[in-house]
Amino acid sequence: MTRTNLVVLDMAGTTVADGGLVEQAFAAAAERLGEAPEAMIGHVRATMGESKISVFRHLFGSEERAQQANRAFEEAYGELVGAGRIAPVPGAAEAVEKLRSQGRTVVLTTGFARTTQDAILAALGWQDLVELTLCPADAGGRGRPYPDMVFAAFLRTGAVDGVRDIAVAGDTSYDMLSAVRSGAGVVAGVLTGAHDRTQLLDHGATHVLASVAELPDLLAGVDDR
User: Fold this and answer.
1) Number of separate helices (H) and strands (E) present in the chain
2) Which branch of life, at top level (predicted)?
């Protein structure tokens, strides 16, 4: 019998309720660079979950300009986090603790840079919540929709024998694509973030949950089959 012993969770929109801070930080970054935020917001919404530097590369073309924009974004997001504008998704920490009590290894992943990820973890008091946290730079730099962070979780934890024993949960189409491309057995979309049920299913979700709080019971059922 297979058992889903590795769980890879997205942060913003999945375990972390940022209340639209990603869009606000993108807008602030654009303004700091003298760009019009409204010209970019459609692409930003469509690519939620992608690594932020990749989004800026698409928007600006120039690598230098993309790096400037990414730094401005990370600064703006960090300021919002520092101002207390971030909170856990209700039941997220409890879900992680339940998953761990079930004997599963849990990894938190993000499209943000490491400095921003660490700031979020510190703001929530989550530094010791999970065994491993990953950002795109920890897995070669490509970020989602590539499966690299899922593979990095698989390789670094050694928690399962094969990728089919991995569960991935996220709130965006790119989270779903990343999970599907990794070969994960459970691809769970959650409705607490950027994309709706149809978008999640269209991009490969095997399950759609109201929130990550439902994940421990889902995986318990999957294991019992």
Assistant:
1) 10, 8
2) Bacteria
Nearest alpha carbon to residue 6 among 134, 155, 120, 191: 155
Q: Give residue-wise pLDDT tens across range 6-55.
A: 999 999 999 999 778 888 888 888 888 887 777 777 777 777 777 777 88
193 within domain boundaries? yes
Give the residue from 39, 65, 82 where a domain finishes.
82
The tokens describing 104, both together, are 């599963």
Full-prediction pTM beyond 0.70?
yes
Are residues 190 and 209 in contact, defined by beta-carbon separation less than 8 angstroms? yes
* Max CA distance (Å), the chain: 57
CA distances from 39 to 21, 35, 44, 106 (A): 18, 8, 10, 38
Tokens standing for residue 31: 């303004």
User: Among the three residues 82, 117, 132, which one is the final residue of a domain in this structure?
Assistant: 82
Can you state the percent helix, strand and coil of the chain, rounding each to 5?
A: 50, 15, 35
- Residue 178 is encoded by which pair of tokens? 């990343």
CB of 188 closer than 8 Å to CB of 205 = yes
The count of domains in the chain is 2
Give the single-character DSSP code of 204: T
Q: Based on the domain organization, do 10 and 29 belong to the same domain?
A: no
- Tokens describing residue 35: 């760009």
- Could you list the residue range(s) of the whole structural domain that residue 57 is in? 21-82
